[in-house]
Every structure is written in C-alpha cells, then in structure tokens.
Input
Amino acid sequence: MEPVIGLEIHTQLNTLTKLFCSCATAVGDEPNSHICEVCSGQPGSLPRTNGKAVELAAKAGLALGCTVNERSVFSRKSYFYPDLPGGFQTSQLDPPICQGGGLTLADGKFIRLNRIHLEDDAGKCVHDEARGQTLVDLNRAGTPLIEIVTEPDFRAADEAVEFLKKLHAILLRLGVTLGRMEEGEFRCDVNISLRPDSSAPFGSRCEIKNLKWPRPSSMKRCARSVSMTRVKRFSGRPASSTRPARKPAPCAPRRKPRITATSPSLISRPFSSPGSFWRNFARKCRNCRRKSRRVS
Output
C-alpha cells in the first residue's frame, strides 16, 4: 500500500496585536488579561483587519512562489468549541490571499502548495484534573494565523518531515513567525490515505489534528497506515474522518466534519475588507519583488 500525504500547516504570525482587534498577542501573561469585546465574541462588536498580518501573509506567499490575489474575502466557519467564544472561526476559503507556489526538496522533488490563507486562532482550554474542572483562557483567541495547505504530493514520512523543517526555517528567516513549537506557533494537520499503487485513485482521507514539531514522524505515519489497512481489510472502504493527535491513531475518536466552500455553516463575513485594501497590498508586494530582482 502506498501512503498519500498532504499537510495543513498553521503558523502564528509575528504581530503585536490580534487579527481583528488591538489586544496584545503576548504569551505567558495572566489568563484572560488580553481580551476585548471583539476577540471575546460580544454581539455588536466591530472588528478591524490587522494590516501587518496581511503583509506577513503576503510576504510568506512571495517567498514560496505564490500568487498574491488582489481580492480576498473572510468567511465565518460556524461550529462549537468551548474555547471559541463567538461560535465561529474567521477564515478564508475562496479566494484566499495566496495561491499556488511550492518548495523543492533535497532530492529535487517539487511539493506544490494549494493555498495560503489568513484566519484567527481559538482560545485555550486548561484542564484542572485535581478539581475536575476545565477553565478557558481567551488570551490566544483572535491571534492571527496563516494556514499553508499543500497538495497531496508526499509519498513518504521523511518527505513531509523535510518539508516542515525547510518551511519552518524560511518563515523564521523572514520574520513571519517566531515559530515556538512549545507554544503551538507552528503546528500541522496531516491528511493521509492509502492506495494499492501509484496508478490507483486516492483513497478515503483520514486527518490527524494538531501535530506539534517534530511529531509528524515515520512512526506516526506507519501507525496510521496500519490502522487504515485494517479498516480496509475488515470493513471495506473507510469514510473520511478527522482525529486528534493526543491519542494513538487506531483508537482516536472522530472529530467535527471538514467544512468546505459548500458547507451550510460557512457564511461570508459582512465586514470583509474592501477590494482596494487587498489591491494595495498586492501592488506593494509586486513592487517589492521587482526591487529585489533588480538588486540581485
């Protein structure tokens, strides 16, 4: 069986304030000390897009050979999590800020990127096992992220690990992120399926959420491959599913279904920035690229 792997890398942007408000993105401060009516999901609050976050997202896209779109729209992905105060996450589906591009591995293989889009992060649940309570810290809620989505071009775990290392180094070098894995500033979701050989169509996808560096390893891939092989052998074709990374893959419970552009829970956000906002950034990025070419 040949594994087919795609990655979704979530990277926290190196900004002083959140994506839609002026609250600080500082780490390690008193819980719920950096929140306001916007990032705590209060009705009637008016968000405002952080221009620095858009600039960093475009900068990452240019470094990875992406096309920076002149128009991009934010949308609401509605689902319930205890640490998601508004009951929705603000993200981008169509069109995102960047499309295309990719990275070349050491052996010359080119890994294609599907897209890079902006979104805000959720809060954090803190489980107090001694008192049997779960507390919610919203300091992280609204922190700007970019999600870098690859095409399913990986055929081995080593390729995925090499790609993550190279991508992490590039984003650190550019100052796009601080990349502190222990703080969850660079993490990824792994989509994996199996097929008999390279000529067969892709199988059903299984997504493993929130793998922290360097956890997307050969052991994880093998465990998932064995699990899905057993499902194929005894139950036929498995349904696509999403599972957390904190438990061994064969026994991990299923999570929420994937939200796509046609999902009824996806709503275009009414405060989406005007076209001139995105066009100005796209024009600025193209000018920077021309200048860098002249210098080189």
About this structure: The first helix runs from residue 51 to 63. The CA atoms of residues 94 and 203 lie 25 Å apart.
